[in-house]
Amino acid sequence: MKYEWKKQDKTLYLPAAEPALITVPAHNCFMLQGEGNPNGEDFTEAVGVLYSLSYAIKMLPKKGPAPEGYYEYSIFPLEGIWDLSEQGRKEAVLNKDELVYTLMIRQPDFVTPVLAAEIIGKVKISKPHPLLNKAAFGSSEDGLSVQMLHVGPYDEEPDSFMRMEQYCKEHGLQRVSKSHREIYITDARRTQPQKMKTVLRFQVSRENYIS
User: b/e map of 182-210 (b: 16 or more CB within 10 Å)?
Assistant: First the structure.
């Protein structure tokens, strides 16, 4: 049976539009680090490279023998861990040019570090790009977190983060750091801003947890 993240992983990718506590396991991903305004060309190029790697994995059975353990699946959505540079943290208003991010796309369980390295090497030949030299494969784990589905433009995300912070106060949870994860369920190029869906998530600790 085909693995579809929208069906099998609803808790992670299609949560309610209300803050909730969740424990997120580790997943293996192709990753790329970057900095600067996400509206710029560098960001767009990084996204393209990650999808090139992800599709190369998915299409393996059509290029030869399938890897051990291969199964049909839907490609996972783009994710990003966002933070600010030291300078950005000093500024009173968000300066997108000072953003620091790690973009990633989760890979199926059958993808090993050896297979991932082989794919990066093959894509360097078939679709050469300088960013492939910075691409990495590794594990990403959020653990105990608060998350919610944000519906609407990215610029309105602060309203959802305020609700998540309030949820933490009401339940005795402490946010671990200022960085956060975003999972892009819809494609901003093809979706009206008011209908865009983004999972927002940040790590927390149970210092004075109230259930």
Answer: bbbbeeeeeeeeeebbbbbbbbbeeeeee
For 135, residues 6+ apart whose C-beta sits below 8 A from its C-beta are: 30, 31, 32, 49, 50, 53, 120
Residues 147-174: pLDDT tens digits? 999 999 999 999 999 999 999 999 999 9
CA atoms within 13 A on the CB side of 174: 5
The 10s digit of each residue's pLDDT in 51-100 is: 999 999 999 999 888 999 999 999 999 999 999 998 988 888 888 989 99
Instruction: Give the integer Cα–Cα distance in Å for 124 and 130.
Output: 9
User: Cα–Cα distances in Å, from 191 out to 98, 114, 153, 167, 187?
Assistant: 26, 37, 10, 29, 6
The pLDDT value given to residue 92: 82
Task: Give residues with Cβ within 8 angstroms of 7, minimum separation 6.
Answer: none
User: Could you tell me the pTM of the whole model?
Assistant: 0.94
**Angstrom distance (rounded) from CA 91 to CA 5:** 38
